[in-house]
Amino acid sequence: MTLTVKRTAEILSLSPRTVRFHLDLARAKLGAKSLAHAVAIATERGLFFQRRF
After folding, report:
1. Residues 17-51, buried b or exposed e (16+ Cβ, 10 A)?
2. Distance (Å, rounded) from C-alpha 39 to C-alpha 53?
3. pTM for the structure as a whole
4. Residues 6 or more apart from 30 whose CB is under 8 A from it?
5. Side-chain-side CA neighbours of residue 38 (13 Å)
6. CA 9, CA 15: separation in Å to the nearest integer?
7. Within the chain, how many helices (H) and strands (E) appear?
8. Mind listing the pLDDT tens digit for each residue in 14-32?
9. End-to-end CA distance of the chain
């Protein structure tokens, strides 16, 4: 499921600007060229948690 910045902000009760700020910060810390690249790097490094239901 893909969420837009706006929808993510609504879910987290944050402003879209705040969500974008944190996405950009995470991208920079990972040394990624784009958000998609950041996701790929984070996945390779095992930085995502798996949901267990």
Report:
1. eebbeeeeebbeebebeeeeebbebeeeeeeeeee
2. 23
3. 0.75
4. 37, 38, 41, 42
5. 14
6. 5
7. 3, 0
8. 999 999 999 999 999 999 9
9. 17
